[in-house]
Amino acid sequence: MSAELDMSQYTDLFLQEGEEQIEILEQELLKLESDPSDERMQIIFRAAHTLKGSSRAMGFSHFAELTHEMENVLDQLRNHTIAVTTHIANSLLACVDTLAGMMDSIRAGEGDAAECADLVKCLQDILAGQGIGGGLSIASEVVSGGGCGLPFPTQVPEDLHDALEAAKEADSVYHVQFRLADDCVMKFVRAFMAVSIAQEAGEILVCCPDQEVLEEEQFDKDFELVFTSETEFEELKAKFDGIGEVEAYEFGVWGELKSAPVTDKPKLEVIESEDVLPAQSVVAPSSAAQSASSGTARKGDSGQTVRVDVARLDNLMNLVGELVIDRTRIAQIGADLALRYSDRQVDDLGETVSHIARITSDLQDQIMKARMLPIETVFNRFPRVVRDLAQKLNKEIKLDLIGGETELDRSVIEVIGDPLLHILRNSVDHGVEMPDEREQVGKPRSGTVTVSAKHQENHIVIEIRDDGKGINTERVKQKAVEAGLVTADAAAKLSDKEALQFIFHSGLSTAAEVSEVSGRGVGMDIVRSNIQKLGGLIDLESIVGEGTRFSLRLPLTLAIIRGLLVNVAETVFVLPLGSVVETLLIENKEIQHINQKEVVVIRGVTTPLVRMREVFGIQGDYKTPDSFYVVIVGLAEQRIGLIVDRLVGEQEVVIKSLSRFCGDVPGVSGATILGDGNVALIADINGIVKNDRG
Amino acid sequence: MDNEIVLDESVVAEDQQTVVFRLAGESYGIEIFRVNEIIRLREITPVPRTEAHVRGLVNLRGKTIPVIDLRSRFSLPTAEETDSSRIIVVDSESGQIGVVVDAVTEVLTLQGEQIDKTPTLVSDPDNQFVRAVAKTNDRLITLLDLDFALAA
Q: What is the CATH number of domain A310-370?
């Protein structure tokens, strides 16, 4: 075991576990104010305690210090010596934020250095305010000795005892025995820490079991070291005290531990029988509670789930993607063969192909499911944000989260958090009125913001609804005119729904004053473009006095899409089916011109037309036929018609990125491989429309 | 220490295997370690609004890779594709790239002394993609500076 041991594996474990604990802390702290039950207190305390233990073990001292102070406060709360106040909740939440920040910098390899002196002071003041000394720590520390079955019979081979006795003549020889806690996650790390302490202090004479055995974690929970050192006993003891997840340990000069050296057989038996007894009754209460509960939870988990690296899942998804392509190809080859020959083998091939097709679809489904996460992971951030915002704005707000179990691909999860958060902030800031104001109009003082998610066909629909004052469309129009987005005449003719669309325009905010929260008018346009990038739609409805509702429609995954294949010149383009509203055959004479732009009126709605040939700059002799195909695509609330040469069909396609070599190609978002083995380009509806406008 | 094998770096560095291909009647060479594979010409999907020498994308066993036309890149006259036309797949900074050539003729091991690193040709700004010129018994082979030739 070298001192330059690769700790990264354990750092990962620490980060993973730490993140879970921090999330638990945040979730539970948020619920604490409204429901300070003993059970909840216990959960919070345990999370803080676990964090302290593991950070200390990893040597993150700032992290450990902060969690230690949190633990002190939490302990007082748990014992009802102090009551939960908003100030305490705020301070603890601030600590959670700082911890999360430290996690980030640890992940970035920058250690845990962060400014937390203020927070520590704040926590200590909370304790002091209750007449409890800030420095007073609670007895959750590592226990030592005292009837935990320690010391146990030494494993040091007898033939070394004489040599060790001899060594004592020259130097102090220390003997330390450890018993790790039952639920110790990083046994090797603990052992390693002990070994490094001894190594630093002097020279290790005996290590039982062998260092290699320790390194491979091939030991139960007991290990011992004999080492020489010139360091003072007390100093070493303080160092050993810092090792976490230890059930008990015994430390002394060699030969003075009660058990060692063991030569007496009967005595050995007595000690062993003690040793066999379950140690529960003698372990310090706090660690017993922790090991019992977290131990069972962990056991339950490990039986049901396996942690898998995200990269591995992505890789699997790519492989399945290629399989899907080949499946389509084989099916096509089979169909071609069936046309040419008719014998049994070709029939057999057809059957096998359809079986493979079924299996591939199932495989794809399963892997997609494995990549799915409940949207809860995004929702979980919301309560905190709403709470903080409401406090800052002096509003009373109740947040309802519905359908958190709805699952969607993690590629989508990763990108929708911010847009949703932005809309949510808007609802809280601009939507919900001040409590007094609400009372005057006969609404309950506290406003309600509801975020809900549900599946709808191959999409997920997320709604953010508030019961606030709604959006005043007249104000929006007025602002739009002021910003020069539309003329006053045109604005007057706009329907309410059309006027609302200006909300998504950059540089427009209806908030009378720019607040710290929102109101600078830079957000909703970004929200919309982000949603569009995902191939999603965003819509909004608002009734003055009753509230506003945003609804987002998003694809479940970004890796495989259903597409409509169309022909433009000789090239096949794929239009994401999620954006396709309908396809129409339109007569040449139906085209009208507005502002020199081609439009067509479909069921009373004027729809602008875009020629795909022009978008992609495809030249060549092309005679406009009398009638042509138009694919109506929906981009957010807009509808435009794309003129294509021919409709080819509908197919599931795997999205491949364009090579960096091609750079950013306007109007093209990626490429895919079709059943015939040829490459097709995936059209970027968003880009085409922007291009048309600009 | 007399029997220690001393590697003459200048010789080792120059001794190189080269994939030789033909383009508009002339021979060109690329170092073999840059070449991934050589495939037959296949359907190329044009990518709109890219530079003229970018022919488009091809399917290489489930991957889509861009293909460039060296004739167009070197301002050579365009020619009909024949049965001997090939795509040489090479590694570049932006991933794999296919290069369309008239024909791949052979793989040669060029000795250091066959390579002329400073022909007057190299200093000509129009020929910056020329790394060196190699002389064999019967002809001259232009060794390409691939990174320069592939730079957009």
A: 1.10.287
pLDDT at residue B9 in the model: 42
Q: Is the separation of the CB atoms in A249 and A143 below 8 Å?
A: no
Place of tokens 């295997």: B17
Q: Write down all domains in chain B, each with its CATH number in brackets.
A: 9-150 (2.40.50.180)
Reference A431, options A530, A505, A515; nearest CA is: A515
Question: What confidence score (pLDDT) does residue A7 get?
Answer: 65
More confident residue, A228 or B14: A228
- Highest CATH level, class, for A560-693: mainly beta
Measured CA to CA, the distance from residue A253 to residue A233 in angstroms comes to: 9
Domain boundaries for CATH 1.20.120.160 within chain A: 8-129
Contact criterion met (CB < 8 Å) for B49 and A667: yes
- A570 among known catalytic residues: no
Rounded CA separation A582/A431 (Å): 35
All CATH 1.10.287 domain ranges of chain A, comma separated, are 310-370
- The correct answer on CATH 3.30.70.1110 for the domain covering A158-279 is yes
Query: Which of A626-635, B62-71, B114-123 is predicted least confidently?
Result: B114-123
CATH code, A374-555: 3.30.565.10
Please list the residue range(s) of chain A that carry CATH number 3.30.565.10: 374-555
HSE, side-chain direction, 13 A CA sphere, residue A398: 9
Q: In 3D, which of A438, A510, A504, A507 has the Cα closest to residue A474? A: A510
Is A426 catalytic? The answer is: yes
For residue A209, whether the previous peptide bond is cis, meaning omega lies within 30 degrees of 0, is yes
Contacts of B56 in chain A (CB under 8 A): 679
A49 given a catalytic annotation? yes
Please give the Cα distance from B93 to B91 (Å, whole number): 7
Query: What is the ipTM score, two decimals?
Result: 0.80
User: Is residue A319 less than 8 Å (CB to CB) from chain B?
Assistant: no
Let me know if domain A8-129 sits in CATH 1.20.120.160: yes
Note if the bond before B119 is cis, omega within 30 degrees.
Answer: no
Take residue A647 and report the two structure tokens written for it: 């409709």
pLDDT in tens, B30-87: 999 999 999 999 889 998 888 888 899 998 877 889 999 988 888 888 888 888 999 9
Any A CB within 8 A of B43 CB? yes
Of the candidates A655, A634, A637, A622, the one whose C-alpha atom is nearest the C-alpha of residue A583 is A634
Q: State mean pLDDT over A348-360.
A: 88
Delimit the CATH 3.30.70.1110 region(s) of chain A.
158-279
